[in-house]
Amino acid sequence: MPGDGTGKPAGEREYGFPAPLWRALARHRPPGAGAATRGWRSPVRGPWLTAVHGALLLVALPLVFLTGLLDHLAYGPRFGQAFPPDVGWLRLPQVDWPTRPSWLFRVTQGLHVTLGIMLVPVVLAKLWSVIPKLFDWPPARSVAQVLERLSLLLLVGGILFEIATGLLNIQYAYLFGFDFYTAHYFGAWVFIAALVAHVSLKLPRMLSALRSRRPADEARTGTAATRPEPPDPDGLVAPEPGPATVSRRGAVALVGGGALLLGALTVGQSLDGPLRRTALLLPRGQDPGSGPNGFPVNRTAAAAGISDADTGAGWRLTLRGGGREVTVDRAALHAMAQHTARLPIACVEGWSTRQTWTGVRLRDLAALVGVPDPASAHVRSLERAGLFNQAVLQANQVLDGDSLLALRVNGADLSVDHGYPARVIVPALPGVHCTKWVAAIDFRTDG
């Protein structure tokens, strides 16, 4: 076999080792593989547009991942109440989730959901830009390319899995057949590992592609003047390009406009006011009703199996701690010092709201049973089943001056759907741990 100046035969340089395997694969092309490759004829497809989409994802996807990890921390994994409870060596540092700023969880969860939805068009555009590579034959020409393809498989599979399960979860469409929290958590780690591997392989080419064309020039180039890029080593440029039906400027604008539209149809669920009615992509509370209790409800009393008898005149709250037990009713709670705080409540599905709550400080209830400095508090609900019928609060969450056993909201008694006779409200705490229909609180000194 003739050489090519590299010291290796031409076939060896192209296919790597073992070259006979790749040459044998090349001779046995599947029917239609070549036609499928030639069928993608858009002249805008190429390294530059692929790199633009890749750069956007490289900035935004780690932010989605990071906010997801922060939300996992907010659930209190140290108490075994974050899901999944056992993540092995993927366990995050054991830190106390702060209560300040009070809107912290509202922002992290809202950003996680809203940005994740906005990135869907960018992900699809990135896949469109590289889809001809799926029909390459042989699928790899070296062991290194095999490893690259495997990382790409995990990357693409991971992001599509995270998007699909995330969208179904925020729509309350539990069609998985597996635990969403566990799958989403481990899936995120698989994806981010594949992303790191892919970026380490492709970052130089991405930067080179971004430098190959000036954005200002592309912004002035219309459809009629759009030409294919020169052939590239990755084979992204169409081998037989057709006439342009859209410019690169138009392609970027289409993807960006789609992302902004999805953001506009999502962000209202993280805001109070008229924009809530525009949040068509999230299922809770475009029109939650009017009056003091007119804000979204994640789980109604009926769905939780709470009856009138549970919340009627016979309801009592049991407080335990320091070897003491105290039982109080609503009248006794109303007789205690009342505190009012304007605090947000936010849900993992992405919606949040800020309301004015009135009730008894949790630290006053702890002092009532002789535990002025509790290490934690275990709150139990009247709800008899479900993942979130109880919650453990950290010391800082119990002792914060705005942490309440709320009896009223916006100047009126809580409705039964919002947790009557009493519910927990803690700054920056996930909504599912702001336990409704509270039956008992154990203040602990041992953490």
From TrEMBL:
Taxonomic classification: Bacteria, Bacillati, Actinomycetota, Actinomycetes, Micromonosporales
Protein name: Molybdopterin-dependent oxidoreductase
UniProt keyword Membrane, yes or no: yes
Keywords recorded for this protein, A-Z: Membrane, Transmembrane, Transmembrane helix
Matching InterPro entries: Di-haem_cyt_TM (IPR016174), OxRdtase_Mopterin-bd_dom (IPR000572), OxRdtase_Mopterin-bd_sf (IPR036374)
Matches recorded under Gene3D superfamilies: Oxidoreductase, molybdopterin-binding domain
Keyword Disulfide bond in annotation: no
All residue ranges annotated as the Oxidoreductase molybdopterin-binding domain in the record: 313-445
Superkingdom of origin organism: Bacteria
Signal peptide (from-to): none
Biological source species: Micromonospora thermarum
Residue spans crossing the bilayer: 48-70, 110-131, 152-174, 186-204
Region (Disordered): 214-242
